[in-house]
Fold this protein.
Amino acid sequence: MARLVQQPLVMACEGWDGYRLLDSGAGRKWEAFGPYSFIRPEPQALWQPRIANWRAAGEFIPGSDEDGGGRWQFSGQFAERLPDAGWELAWNEVRFTARPTPFRHLQFFPDMAPVWDWMRQQLGAMTEAETLNLFGYTGLGTLALARHGRVTHVDASKKSVAQARENAALSGLADCPIRWLTDDAAKFTAREVRREKRYDGIILDPPKFGRGPDGEVWRLEEHLPGLVTDCAKLLDEGSRFLFLTVYAVRMSSLAIAGLLEEALGHLPGVIEHGDLAVREQGEGTAEGTRLLPTAIFARWSNPR
């Protein structure tokens, strides 16, 4: 029976050559994405910035709607040097394109870096694993898993899947056994259950609200329990992990850990939960400086 650890954890992104959190505060964050820096809204940065003046290539100005909206405002000489097609970044052997999007991010989520490391640790030396990436977006999690075997990548956006395939080619992984699927995650998972499929690991990063390729509506609080239940049916005692992240909701990590305990409690292993966060790495910061929380997570692992 899987054991639920009630004490929360923090999985912190410490930054790498392609990404740094330079400073945060007053509801914003200042980040370096390779050679360019950007300012984005961050409601959880309740403190004051350490640095008085932030100089960035662009800032995302949020709309008045609490659920999203807004626009990028690019600044002078910095903006003139921004390549229209984006620029290349890397995390370990995974290479990808970054560029500002209308949704305030830059085509990847840097706070997921410790998750990619954790998944690799769970799979260890496996080279023929079967893994599933639901809501796979531009594919960095998929490419992180590719060294371990076959990956099924599912996202409702044709544009995101196309970008994921481009990132695979950029990384020299185009010939890896990856299934690239434009599909509704919940419907696909339900079909996999009927087909009695089995996976060694599953990662899911669902949005608060979304639409499938045929107009299917996704509401996290309404549809997540059923999806997690179906995901559990794709795992068995030989499987290694399930990782769930949740952004931008008024919900505790303990709540989604309880959801995993209900669905996966019959399997061996451990269920943990907590916060994803990014550690500031800007000028003048010291070791152990403040962490900016970004999301909550719950994870099941079955150490071998």
Q: What stands out?
A: The two ends are 15 Å apart (CA to CA). The helical segments are 76-80, 113-123, 140-145, 158-170, 185-194, 220-232, 253-264. The chain has one domain: 3-16+86-301. Residues 3-16+86-301 form a domain with the Rossmann fold fold (CATH 3.40.50.150).
